[in-house]
Structures are given as structure tokens and as C-alpha cells.
Specification:
Layout (H helix, E strand, L loop, with lengths): L1 E4 L3 H10 L12 E7 L2 E12 L4 E8 L7 H14 L4 E7 L3 H9 L3 E5 L9 E7 H6 L6
Parallel strand pairs: 4-5
Antiparallel strand pairs: 1-2, 2-3, 3-4, 5-7, 6-7
Length: 143
Amino acid sequence: MVDLLYGHNETVARWVAAHIPGCEAGFNNPTAIGVLDNGKLIGGTVFHNWHEPCGVIEMSSAGTSPRWLAPKMIRAIFGYVFDQLNCQIVVMRVSERNRRMVRIAERFGFTGYLIPRLRGRDEAEWVFTLTDDTWRSHKLNRR
């Protein structure tokens, strides 16, 4: 059984950044939710670049086990974004090479835009967006 880790923003943010190639600089002023499996951090989501007047936030995630994306973590991620912060859209950037995360984003209802060279001369990046309306009507959000 996995447990959620709250209140350790910097620890989880450093862990997530260490597991995302090209994210060595980390995150400014992050809020994060981690996932523990038997006390070991196996995943997390970092929320950053919040622009409250527009209701926009960015999220970055990483995991070392498929167990990190348990249903309670999914509810925690989108509950924080859409219910606590009242965001109207969340943005997530994903390397074109990270096919697994691309599939997860699509399964969650994100809309993707592939931008050539956004990760450097030889690597494109997906910019995914998910609106509150899309999430609220998505089958994964139904209990």
C-alpha cells in the first residue's frame, strides 16, 4: 500500500527534479506531493509556476514504480490543482522521448502540443494542458 507524503515540498521537488533529465535546476517555490511505498519515495508531483490571476499552474512528475500513480495520488494531484487552488488549467511539459508519460497524459485527458527543439536542438517537447472542465467530466475523475 502506498502512502501520500505532504509537507516535504523541497525533498519531493529535489527527488522529482533528479528523475527528470534536464531538470537539474529544480523548481522555484514548489509545492509537492510525494508517494511512499514502505517508507521509500517512489514518485511525486511538483506544482510550480503558479499564476493565480489566470488560474494556471504547471506540474512536473516522476516515478520509479507504476505504483506511484495510485488512484489516491491521482485524486490528490487534481484535487489540489482544481479544488484547492481553483485553477482553470494545468500545464505539463514532457520530453518527446518519454513515451510512457505521454501515454499517461493522454489517458488523463490532456491535450498535447509537440514543440520542436523545446528541449534542445535535437529534442522536441510536448506541452500538455488539462482544463478543469475536461478533468471534471473525465472517466478517471468519477468515483
